[in-house]
């Protein structure tokens, strides 16, 4: 190996750097914001059931690092803690891999499976296997059209089209004339359904805009470009909370008067709704989806209940959050549970 | 490649006499005493003695795998010897990097030329020893001076290029080799190690390179010329060392060895004789026409263009 | 390819047969040809073509503010494309570049928020971490002799996991907390993510940084020892080592330079958006590499420029925003992008071939 640098001087540089950082840390506390300012309230908790311990698998099509799914998982964990359930969470955005994860749960001989049906066709076989193994399966989030066909017990979710339609109506109420629907993942069925739903009920014009969801600066400049091109756009509809926050910046950059409304919720978003930079959000209550799915398996095992009677899905949304009710929601959103 | 005409070779050799005796009183620049190198339990080189005097060309000959490359790597600082001694100006040394060897004035021109084909000629010329100007934060390359110097030095070696900005890779093999030699000479090399400089070249290009070797000798440099072509070696060499299977088979001054003997040693001497007898017994082969006997007029099949 | 070969200018055909030259004289190439042989000329022409195309197609592009948007998008790609290009000229890849941006931003956000520190503390820790990741990549590669593709693929996957797991562990969420109300935020924002007015056009500071970095990189590459070494280690590593170029130092420092770029872009993202999503950044590394390659850097190393990737990034920004400005059917967005980039690359290739053919 070529050793052109004196290793000792390199070490000295490292030590110096560490010393400088230590000094900085000692003298540079922030007097505002930060963890100290954050309320460390605990999440929702109820008593604990004394029913026999059971094991439930929650298998989703989450891509790593998605806020939405994190909330679903928190709901599921809360229900599991209450019901004396050991929750096994796993996820994979690719349908084949997700099916494998369900198979894995069957192999573990769990007492119940909650699964999302983003690509129902791929899940059909493995759900059949679960049925043969006498493991009850419930659906959540995606698959409203297919859960009964696949023989699932119950379903908890939001009809994306219904949510979109409700969104469109709300836009009519607030007097929108021209909107742009920002799709952050091209080809995602659920996102497309939302935009289609908006289009169906919204009386003004609505156009889709595709952005690269993994690159925020690109999202920002693409929305800015769109607003510059069509200066008569008065509403930007985003399909995820982080993109709504970015869209508000684009509106500023483009010098547009457009307002931002969004699907889904997070804690920064509630602040923005309070401040009025975001007009409203429609929430499908992911926490509720996770919570109900796990809880329903407990109810089924211990009392033989079916939510929705096994015939109808249980709809968890759309729930609107705007200035009128944001204070109540904000409290929970801050904890990352709503 | 055709076999060179021995008559002509001799003639040229006589016209270009050995660079005379080593200057009186000057010890060898580089000396190896019983040097060797093992890679794990494989002994690549063993018990090699070699001396390089200023103004002399020491030729190291050997077949593929004879240990020539290992020898160069030890002297140039790429590898360290595991036995014996390496002395520079009479002091034992152990180089850890080529830079250290370079600092002692030992420059190596590799078989693969140690050049970067995509870089311009002048950048290649100064690579690793760039001229700079200005104080640190804005210390920058002195491009004008480097280009001028490179051009002068190349002209001194008889190489004229119109465009020093052209990538070195666009030059012919002989030109590239010559640039590399000119470069080493410029950077104060006292000892020039040339690794198979003629191996990949045609007759004409080889001649160009041999001329530069002679030029370097005239300038008083000690040259180690690695080759497996005895004809090329005999044209410019003052001392000949033949390596075989990692050990020294022959070490002789020019006065002690003829081209024929050298060729024979290169070709495998005794081994070849044994092979000749075997073929004789097998019959059907006209062994008289075969080269390789110690007194054969024809040189042993000149190794064709290839690499060690 | 035949077509492009024929299209090559035949300006100076007088043959000077390769080996028969007298005293090593080579024929002088015409000025135009020598200009075309510069690595950035092809992409420059490509960028001009794309620019003119959208100027005609989309009237909105003609406004100054629209250009500012295009340049902003280009700058966030371009700042990273520069060190990635230098690394590529040095003969190596860094697949972890996209995720490293997010790692850096997450580090700064979490350190500042969780320890309730001035945000500059987080910024500095993130810098140290980013440089360390770069040094690790370089050291692993030099030490093991594995291709950088493999080493950085490992880092890429590793960082992706660490980003998510650590964020979840520390914040309980998959995104960092909002740090916009903390000490030093405004200061840091003015460095990494402010904007200023040029006439009546609002220009993002990243555009300035991008051009400053590009000028600096060009100077280093063409006018300093270190730049010479970058070309040499990429062109022929063993030769470079043999003539005394510190190959290990050059390679490791190049990886650290990518770390620096990741840190800078990461800080921009943090101070522009106040929070960072831990899952972002995946796939960006390919865009950086694409900008560098479109910018005329050779995938195999040893050839390229720092100014080429500037045009590469500009072209990327221009195409992705131009499609929106032109109001084309957004369903085709990616397809347009692909065709445009391929077309630009072909122009680039054609120019280089006709210029270097001798």
TrEMBL record, chain B:
Locate the region Disordered: 1-26, 288-308
Extent of Polar residues compositional bias? 1-10
Stretches assigned to the ABC transporter domain: 30-270
Q: What InterPro entries does this protein's entry cite? A: AAA+_ATPase, ABC_carbohydrate_import_ATPase, ABC_transporter-like_ATP-bd, P-loop_NTPase
For this protein, the record's SUPFAM superfamilies field holds: P-loop containing nucleoside triphosphate hydrolases (SSF52540)
The Gene Ontology terms for molecular function here are: ATP binding; ATP hydrolysis activity
Keywords, in A-Z order: ATP-binding, Nucleotide-binding
UniProt-recorded name of the protein: ABC transporter ATP-binding protein
Q: Say which species the protein is native to.
A: Streptomyces griseoaurantiacus M045
UniProtKB/TrEMBL annotation, chain C:
Compartments it resides in: Cell membrane
**Gene Ontology annotations for the cellular component aspect, listed alphabetically:** plasma membrane
Any one Gene Ontology MF annotation carried by this entry is: transmembrane transporter activity
Q: Which UniProt keywords apply?
A: Cell inner membrane, Cell membrane, Membrane, Sugar transport, Transmembrane, Transmembrane helix, Transport
Provide the transmembrane region boundaries. Answer: 35-58, 70-88, 95-113, 119-139, 146-166, 201-222, 243-266, 286-303, 310-326, 332-351
**Keyword set includes Zinc:** no
In this chain, the stretch annotated as Disordered covers 1-25
What is the annotated role of this protein in its UniProt record? Part of the binding-protein-dependent transport system for D-xylose. Probably responsible for the translocation of the substrate across the membrane.
Know the name of this protein? Xylose transport system permease protein XylH
């Amino acid at each position: 190996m070529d050793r052109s640098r004196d290793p000792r001087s390199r070490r000295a540089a490292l030590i110096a750097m560490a010393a400088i950082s230590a000094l900085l840390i000692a003298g540079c506390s922030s007097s505002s914001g930060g963890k100290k300012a954050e309320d460390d309230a605990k999440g929702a908790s109820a008593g604990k059931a004394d029913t026999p311990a059971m094991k439930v698998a929650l298998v989703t099509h989450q891509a790593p690092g998605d806020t939405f799914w994190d909330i679903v998982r928190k709901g599921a964990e809360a229900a599991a803690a209450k019901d004396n359930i050991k929750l096994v969470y796993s996820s994979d955005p690719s349908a084949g891999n997700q099916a494998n994860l369900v198979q894995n749960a069957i192999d573990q001989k769990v007492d119940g499976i909650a699964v999302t049906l983003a690509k129902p066709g791929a899940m059909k076989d493995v759900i059949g296997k679960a049925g043969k193994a006498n493991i009850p399966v419930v659906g959540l989030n995606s698959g409203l059209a297919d859960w009964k066909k696949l023989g699932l017990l119950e379903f908890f979710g939001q009809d994306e089209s219904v949510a979109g339609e409700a969104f469109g109506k709300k836009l009519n109420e607030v007097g929108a004339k021209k909107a742009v629907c920002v799709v952050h993942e091209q080809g995602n069925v659920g996102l497309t359904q939302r935009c289609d739903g908006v289009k169906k009920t919204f009386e003004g014009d609505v156009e889709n805009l595709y952005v690269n969801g993994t690159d925020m600066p690109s999202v920002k400049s693409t929305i800015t470009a769109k607003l510059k091109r069509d200066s008569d756009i008065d509403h930007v509809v985003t399909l995820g909370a982080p993109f709504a926050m970015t869209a508000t910046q684009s509106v500023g950059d483009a010098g547009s008067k457009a307002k931002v409304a969004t699907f889904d919720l997070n804690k920064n978003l509630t602040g923005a709704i309070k401040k009025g930079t975001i007009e409203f959000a429609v929430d499908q209550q992911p926490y509720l989806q996770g919570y109900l799915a796990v809880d329903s398996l407990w109810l089924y095992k211990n009392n033989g209940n079916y939510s929705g009677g096994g015939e109808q899905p249980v709809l968890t949304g759309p729930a609107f959050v705007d200035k009128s009710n944001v204070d109540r929601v904000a409290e929970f959103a801050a904890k990352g549970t709503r | 490649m055709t076999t060179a005409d021995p008559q002509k070779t001799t003639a040229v050799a006589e016209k270009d006499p050995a660079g005379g005796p080593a200057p009186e009183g000057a010890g060898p620049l580089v000396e190896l005493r019983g040097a060797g190198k093992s890679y794990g339990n494989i002994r690549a080189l063993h018990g090699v003695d070699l001396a390089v005097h200023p103004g002399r060309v020491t030729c190291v000959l050997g077949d593929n795998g004879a240990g020539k490359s290992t020898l160069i790597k030890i002297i140039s600082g790429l590898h360290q010897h595991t036995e014996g001694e390496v002395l520079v100006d009479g002091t034992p040394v152990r180089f850890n990097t080529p830079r250290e060897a370079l600092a002692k004035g030992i420059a190596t021109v590799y078989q693969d030329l140690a050049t970067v084909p995509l870089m311009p000629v002048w950048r290649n010329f100064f690579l690793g020893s760039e001229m700079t100007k200005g104080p640190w934060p804005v210390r920058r390359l002195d491009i004008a001076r480097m280009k001028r110097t490179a051009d002068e030095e190349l002209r001194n070696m008889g190489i004229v290029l119109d465009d020093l900005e052209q990538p070195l890779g666009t030059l012919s093999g002989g030109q590239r080799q010559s640039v590399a030699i000119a470069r080493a000479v410029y950077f104060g090399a006292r000892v020039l190690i040339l690794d198979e400089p003629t191996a990949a070249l045609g007759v004409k290009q080889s001649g160009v390179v041999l001329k530069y070797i002679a030029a370097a000798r005239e300038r008083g440099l000690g040259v180690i010329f690695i080759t497996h072509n005895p004809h090329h070696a005999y044209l410019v060499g003052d001392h000949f060392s033949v390596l075989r299977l990692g050990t020294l088979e022959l070490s002789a001054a020019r006065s002690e060895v003829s081209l024929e003997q050298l060729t024979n040693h290169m070709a495998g001497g005794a081994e070849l004789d044994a092979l000749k007898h075997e073929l004789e017994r097998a019959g059907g082969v006209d062994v008289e026409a075969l080269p390789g006997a110690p007194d054969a007029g024809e040189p042993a099949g000149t190794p064709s263009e290839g690499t060690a | 390819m035949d077509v492009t070969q024929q299209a090559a200018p035949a300006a100076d055909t007088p043959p000077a047969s390769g080996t028969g030259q007298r005293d090593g004289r080579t024929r002088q190439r015409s000025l135009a040809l020598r200009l075309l042989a510069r690595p950035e000329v092809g992409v420059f022409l490509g960028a001009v073509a794309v620019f003119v195309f959208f100027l005609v197609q989309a009237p909105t592009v003609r406004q100054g503010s629209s250009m500012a948007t295009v340049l902003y998008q280009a700058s966030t790609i371009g700042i990273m494309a520069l060190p990635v290009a230098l690394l590529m000229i040095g003969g190596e890849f860094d697949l972890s570049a996209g995720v490293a941006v997010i790692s850096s931003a997450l580090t700064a956000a979490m350190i500042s928020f969780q320890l309730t520190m001035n945000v500059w503390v987080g910024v500095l820790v993130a810098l140290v971490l980013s440089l360390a990741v770069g040094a690790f990549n370089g050291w692993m590669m030099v030490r093991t002799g594995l291709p950088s593709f493999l080493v950085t693929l490992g880092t890429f996957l590793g960082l992706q996991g660490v980003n998510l797991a650590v964020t979840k562990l520390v914040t309980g969420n998959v995104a960092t907390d909002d740090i916009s109300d903390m000490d030093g935020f405004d200061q840091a924002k003015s460095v990494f993510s402010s904007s200023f007015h040029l006439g009546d056009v609002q220009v993002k500071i990243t555009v300035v940084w991008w051009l400053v970095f590009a000028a600096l990189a060009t100077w280093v590459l063409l006018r300093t020892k270190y730049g010479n070494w970058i070309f040499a280690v990429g062109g022929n590593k063993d030769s470079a080592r043999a003539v005394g170029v510190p190959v290990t130092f050059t390679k490791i420092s190049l990886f650290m330079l990518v770390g620096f770029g990741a840190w800078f872009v990461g800080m921009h993202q943090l101070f522009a958006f106040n929070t960072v999503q831990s899952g972002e950044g995946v796939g960006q590394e390919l865009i950086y590499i694409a900008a560098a390659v479109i910018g005329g850097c050779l995938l195999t190393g040893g050839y390229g420029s720092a100014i080429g990737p500037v045009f590469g990034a500009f072209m990327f920004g221009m195409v992705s925003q131009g499609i929106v400005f032109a109001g084309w059917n957004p369903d085709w967005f990616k397809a347009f992008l692909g065709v445009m980039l391929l077309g630009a690359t072909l122009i680039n290739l054609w120019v280089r071939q006709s210029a270097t053919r001798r």
